């Protein structure tokens, strides 16, 4: 694998398409991706564009059988990339960019298969009785993304615990996804989905269905959100141990992405009911501040300082 050879004009055009998709649809991603060198940003954008395509299939309004057929097509694309069967003049820019990224970086393509598996759970309308069950879903749709992007970032030579980097990346993905689930409780319920574990909903007297958006006077909705928020913080504490294992700019990228979600978690914890009123978000100025903090390496040093023993 080589990152030194310049991509051809057709590949550059394919990457440009993916970067535009990421910039238009994933502001949080873009804040972080701008902190890495252009070649890594292009590869990350190719991964994002494919993930976005798969997510859009799952979230769209097509009948389930059509969604499954589209996801089968997405899996076939992964196989083509795996087999080296995507030409530079292919009409699908995502396929072209992804194939080039895989040629340049040790990206574990099985993570894309896991992502498709997770979206198939959404299409099936699966619900989750326990955290262990929800963790499996989060591993597919977000932990896999953490491991895929680690293939682009790479691990700093000589870094301690280097062999644990994929595990840390996976756990950080879980932290981000659980934060997403809390932020999107109302939006997901309006789309007919409830992700939080049923046993947790029962524990706090909350409806185990889309009625979660109007939990009722007897429900301890604040307690439920804070319970899940503490779980997410534990995942962040473990996942952020990835930062000292990365080079400065890759660490800044991950720190920026994670930092934005960590601050979202702070806002949710301060006012749990806010998630029932709409999507909680950060203003652009705060996102920019998080990106600057990532560049300083503050979070990486903190993660290294609190690193426990094996």
The largest sheet, given as strand count, sense and whether it forms a barrel, is: none
- The helix fraction, in percent, is 55-70%
Secondary structure category? mainly alpha
User: Please, how many helices?
Assistant: 15
Strand content: under 5%
Q: What is the number of beta strands?
A: 0
Shape: globular
Question: How far do the termini sit from each other?
Answer: 32 Å
* Chain-averaged pLDDT: 90
Describe the structure.
By secondary structure, the protein is mainly alpha-helical. 68% of the residues lie in helices and 0% in strands. The protein contains 15 helices and no strands. Helix 12 crosses helix 14. The two termini are 32 Å apart. The mean pLDDT is 90.
